[in-house]
Write a structure and sequence with these properties.
The complex is a heterotrimer. The longest helix of chain A is centred in the N-terminal third of the chain and has 37 residues. Helices cover about 60% and strands about 0% of the residues of chain A. Chain B has one domain: Four Helix Bundle (Hemerythrin (Met), subunit A) (Up-down Bundle), CATH 1.20.120. In chain B, about 80% of the residues lie in helices and about 0% in strands. Chain B starts with a helix and ends with a helix. Chain C is elongated and about 90 Å long. Chain C is of the alpha+beta class. A 5-stranded mixed sheet of chain C has the order 3-9-8-5-6. Chain C has a 4-stranded mixed sheet with strand order 2-1-4-7, with no helix packed on it. In chain C, α1 runs parallel beside α2 and α2 runs antiparallel to α3. Chain C is about 35% helix and about 20% strand. Chain C folds into 2 domains: about 110 residues, no CATH class; about 130 residues, Cupredoxins -  blue copper proteins (Immunoglobulin-like), CATH 2.60.40.420. Chain C has 4 helices and 9 strands; from the N terminus they run αααβββββββββα. The chains are: A mainly alpha, B mainly alpha, C alpha+beta. The interface between A and B is large, with 48 and 37 residues.
């Protein structure tokens, strides 16, 4: 390893092939876009509560929308459509994916399975820089004269084709950026799967891996199988946009007969449904592990949880039609999708009960990562249960394309996944950066995120139940929405509080990075392998290949006398 | 240039090769999903439409397409011979066979372009009808990947000249190239013949 | 049924504290029932979970002298209990609402009315307005005597089943009737069918529930439900306006010559 002593700054930090560095690069990219997308959400909320009013200075009203056709500093209907389109796209592909999968996948996988690095370090490097390129293309669309894509993050054709009448190249840039992002994800998936299959340390059986790794493993399998499918959809959408084809255009405006807009919806959702599981599986894994660490007892029903996660992964491929109940599909098809979708309740409920079982009879320590993990139980419980309304066709006929769906997916994706990501960041910060984040600030961040978040998204479901349909720039247009308008203002206030609280997080993060209290090697007394090495972790991770004796959650084991934990690589006393 | 000597210290070279092979298999699996999605889209569009080809061109000019299919099959054979020579550690034959493969690949691409020109002159374009859109999309994507394959073959040549013979890169590039041949055959049968 | 729903609504579905729009349809109660049943059961279950978590937070918090119990939860008993609880959740919620939904679909939503009494309307949404077409005296669509009201104005008679067929002109739209709790997508290249029946007269709103462009948010229509006499008078007044002017307005992107033969498949 002496050849690494003369590494230049560039090869050590910019074009590094070390999984820990690449993981951190993904983290910076992800946090940047999380804040970007979050700011967009603030703009959306402002526009909904103060329609056609100029943005205040603290929402950058003096800098943004200066050339807006409806007035200086005012978000008009075109801009609004662009906002929610990019908000959705950015949060899903540029915030959650890089943070949970890019950053924590890269950082945790080799360390937790006892490997020196990912199995394809060069591929890892290319994966990050492809994502960087994707980010550049995406951000460039903001410089286009007609702005960014504006067809929703789902981009249904024909609206997202020239026939739809949205001017400019925003959609084309969106497609290119997403294709690059998908390529990056695919490279990552190949790396993660092969690493987990081939580089586990001796003794690290599949059922001794931390559940975080299970989550990342299953996510990567879904990524490898289904990202190419949306690539197919993007290819034909791109051709319709630039080459004059009409794969996805039909009806009065079509000049080439035989196109089918519904084809895109099927292709999109065959990817789209597994995608939402891709986003949440790592969070489930992290939460399962962290609940165990902070309850000082093993993850209850570890094997059952792992098997449930596998079952859900498999089923996720079969249920995409529940996004399309109102498209006029055949009754038999609709009922089949409903039946399969509802079946997923069973493994979800089972591993949720296992979470409760982990807490039961534990010794609960309420550090910041634990607060966030427990809150995932709350928000995923609510989010998952409200999915039932959408799974059932009868209620979905009413609730489809209303704010009920928006509330539901923000609970399962924004809340569960984001809180899972925060839990992961607070938990692994000492191992990534050698310092501790400030605990008090962390708890304040938690409460000021948890309560406002519930106030925003629960009320969103209330609005949806009251019939408020989606993607509406100005709800005052409709009389039947009049009772709902007051709620809008309440939600906006809480959204601003939620946004401001993230500033606390950024402050804590930045300050701790530079001046935080130095962390000991294993501040959380966690049993998994990454805590057996000290920061800064050298290239190659472990001086000696670890031998694994125990499972990942051996807390409060009766054979271990002086402490309530034992590392995976320590032989168990008899 | 960073090298990870520690990975190789854990696994033997054979296990290391299997690892790359495994990774490539996953990659090919992903590409297959893409291809299946595109083929399925083609299938759905074709089944749902009444007339598939337009009146300007009722059947495809098959001769060129057949020739190209044979050309690409030959390229796979020459590459296969290259890998055999590689295993026997015969550097000269290996390199020669790879040069041949590259040349044949270039012939394939040229014939593709000629085929496209013939079709366009007959009025079969990417926007004339859905059949045209499908054909150019699939053959275009395939052609782009052949270009990528040619680039990786050239890279392979440099690698062999510098490092003597290594089995792993040869294996990986071969897998990709043979996969492209297979994809062409599927495209040929489903889009051109039927 | 009403008493149960009242209690149910008060105790359990106070969770959705805003009411949906007034329901004037014959089948909307089915949707409300499914929603309210789901409300009730998930409130109970989530309530139990929250209570359990609160209890655990207090009873099992780390404190001096308190140790965690080493329990992997992998004994037959524990696995059996969690599997059992999972199944219980499934049987008490999923199976029930699925059964209710199957019944609703078979009996109502996908059970299209037939006969002479049925009012047929063709709907063609475009960016950004609703076009309607009535068959006129000959009862056939796509003929000279079809009646086309001014855009965004749909009239139906009360207490009569109305079947609509919908196909859009340009992009995907969705025909949403808040006061009937239903919606159906309009996808170019497809003709979709939906039916409903009003129980009260009045004027109600139609909204577009699928993003269709920058004026999607104000693609509003008006549904007037009136007595049969008023409805027939309204149809007569449309007849007197004369046949549609077929070739005017072709430049304005407003399709004037549209309409299709009624799809009989259902």
């Amino acid at each position: 390893m002496n050849s690494h002593n003369e590494q230049s700054f560039v090869s050590k930090y910019i074009f590094s092939m070390d999984h820990k560095v690449i993981g951190k690069q993904f983290l910076w990219l992800g946090i940047f876009f999380l804040l970007f997308g979050g700011f967009q959400a603030m703009l959306i909320r402002w526009s909904l509560s103060n329609t056609m009013e100029p943005l205040p200075w603290w929402l950058l009203g003096d800098i943004l929308y200066q050339n807006s056709p409806v007035g200086v500093g005012i978000i008009g209907p075109d801009a609004y459509n662009q906002l929610f389109t990019m908000h959705g796209t950015i949060m899903i592909f540029w915030a959650i994916t890089p943070i949970l999968i890019g950053a924590f996948g890269n950082f945790c996988i080799p360390l937790q399975i006892g490997a020196p690095d990912m199995v394809f370090p060069k591929l890892n490097l290319i994966s990050f820089w492809t994502m960087f390129l994707a980010s550049v293309v995406l951000l460039m669309s903001y410089l286009l004269p007609n702005g960014t894509a504006a067809g929703g993050w789902t981009s249904y054709p024909p609206l997202s084709t020239p026939v739809g009448g949205i001017p400019g190249l925003g959609q084309v840039f969106w497609i290119l950026a997403l294709t690059l992002a998908g390529t990056s994800t695919l490279m990552g998936a190949i790396n993660y799967i092969t690493t987990i299959v081939r580089l586990r340390a001796p003794g690290m059986d599949y059922f001794k891996m931390p559940l975080t790794i299970w989550g990342l493993f299953l996510t990567s399998i879904l990524n490898a199988l289904f990202v190419p499918i949306i690539a197919a959809g993007l290819i034909i959408l791109l051709l319709d946009n630039v080459a004059g084809t009409q794969f996805l255009i039909a009806g009065g405006k079509a000049t080439i007969p035989g196109g089918d807009p519904l084809l895109y919806q099927h292709v999109f959702w065959i990817f789209g449904h597994p995608e939402v599981y891709i986003l949440i599986l790592p969070a489930w894994g992290v939460v399962s592990d962290l609940l165990s660490v902070f309850s000082r007892k093993p993850a209850f029903g570890y094997k059952v949880t792992a098997i449930c996660m596998c079952t859900i992964t498999a089923f996720s491929a079969l249920v995409w039609g529940h996004h399309m109940y109102t498209t006029g599909m055949s009754p038999l098809l609709g009922k089949t999708f409903m039946f399969l979708t509802l079946l997923i309740s069973i493994p979800s409920a089972i591993f949720f009960f296992n979470w409760l079982g982990t807490l039961w009879r534990g010794a609960l320590q309420f550090d910041t990562p634990m607060l966030f993990s427990m809150s995932v139980m709350w928000v995923f419980g609510l989010g998952g249960l409200t999915g039932l309304y959408n799974a059932t066709i009868t209620s979905d006929i009413y609730l489809h394309d209303t704010y009920f769906v928006v509330g539901h997916f923000h609970y399962t994706m924004a809340a569960s996944v984001m809180f899972g990501a925060f839990a992961a960041i607070y938990f692994w910060f000492p191992k990534m950066f050698g310092r501790q984040m400030n605990s008090k600030l962390g708890k304040v961040h938690f409460w000021f995120s948890f309560i406002p978040l519930n106030m925003v998204f629960f009320n969103m479901m209330v609005m949806g139940y009251a019939g408020h349909h989606r993607r509406i720039f100005d709800p005052t247009e409709y009389e039947f929405l009049a009772p709902v308008l007051g709620l809008n203002n309440l939600m906006t206030t809480f959204a601003f509080i939620l946004g401001a609280a993230q500033g606390l997080f950024v402050l804590n993060f930045a300050y701790s990075l530079l001046k935080g209290e130095k962390a000991e090697q294993n501040p959380w007394k966690s049993a998994t392998l990454e805590w057996t090495v000290d920061y800064p972790i050298p290239h190659g991770n472990f001086a000696v290949v670890p031998s694994v004796y125990n499972g990942p959650h051996e807390y409060s084991h009766p054979n271990v006398k002086e402490r309530d934990w034992i590392s995976q690589s320590e032989p168990m006393p008899t | 240039m960073q090298t990870l000597t520690t990975i190789k210290s854990i696994k033997t070279q054979k296990e290391d090769q299997f690892t790359s092979y495994f990774g490539m298999l996953i990659a090919l699996g992903s590409f297959s999903m893409l291809f299946i999605a595109l083929l399925a889209s083609y299938g759905i569009l074709r089944v749902r439409s009444g007339i598939w080809m337009s009146n300007t061109i009722e059947t495809m000019p098959l001769t060129l397409a057949w020739v190209n299919t044979i050309v690409i099959l030959i390229s796979s054979i020459t590459l296969f011979m290259a890998s055999k020579a590689n295993e026997r550690e015969n550097k000269i034959v290996t390199l020669n066979q790879i040069y041949t493969t590259i040349t044949i690949g270039l012939v394939f691409l040229s014939l593709q372009i000629i085929l496209w020109n013939v079709l366009i002159n007959d009025g079969f374009t990417i926007t004339s009808h859905q059949a045209g859109s499908v054909f150019y999309m699939l053959s275009g994507l395939h052609g782009l990947h052949i270009l990528g394959g040619l680039i990786s073959l050239i890279w392979l040549i440099f690698k062999i000249r510098v490092n003597n013979l290594i089995l792993k890169p040869m294996r990986l590039v071969s897998m990709f190239w043979h996969y492209l041949t297979l994809i062409w055959i599927v495209i040929f049968i489903t889009v051109i013949l039927i | 049924m009403n008493q149960f729903r009242k209690i149910n609504k008060f105790v359990f579905s106070g969770i959705w504290f805003l009411d949906p729009p007034k329901d004037i349809s014959v089948d909307g109660w089915r949707i409300d029932n499914v929603i309210q049943y789901t409300d009730a059961v998930i409130t109970i279950y989530f309530g139990i979970v929250v209570l359990a978590m609160l209890y655990f937070i207090i009873k099992y918090r780390a404190r001096p002298g308190h140790k965690a119990v080493y329990d992997r939860g992998d004994t037959k008993k524990h696995v059996g209990i969690t599997l059992g609880m999972g199944l219980l959740v499934f049987l008490s919620i999923d199976v029930v609402i699925e059964g209710m939904s199957f019944k609703d679909l078979n009996e109502a939503f996908w059970n299209f009315p037939k006969g002479d009494d049925v009012v047929q309307v063709e709907v063609m949404p475009q960016q950004f307005a609703w076009n309607f077409r009535y068959a006129g005296n000959d009862g056939t669509f796509g003929t000279e005597d079809d009646l086309i009201p001014s855009q965004n104005q749909m009239h139906i008679p009360v207490n009569k089943p109305v079947v609509i067929q919908i196909a859009p002109y340009d992009v995907i739209h969705s025909f949403y009737l808040p006061n009937f709790r239903i919606k159906i997508d309009a996808t170019p290249g497809m003709i979709n069918t939906m039916w409903f029946q009003a129980t009260e007269t009045g004027q109600f709103e139609i909204a577009c529930a699928e993003l269709c462009g920058n004026s999607h948010y104000r693609m509003k229509g008006y549904l007037t439900v009136e007595s049969e006499d008023d409805y027939n008078n309204w149809l007569k007044s449309l007849e007197e306006e004369g046949p549609e002017d077929e070739w005017e307005d072709e430049d304005d992107e407003n399709p004037t010559r549209w309409g299709w033969a009624w799809k009989e498949a259902i």
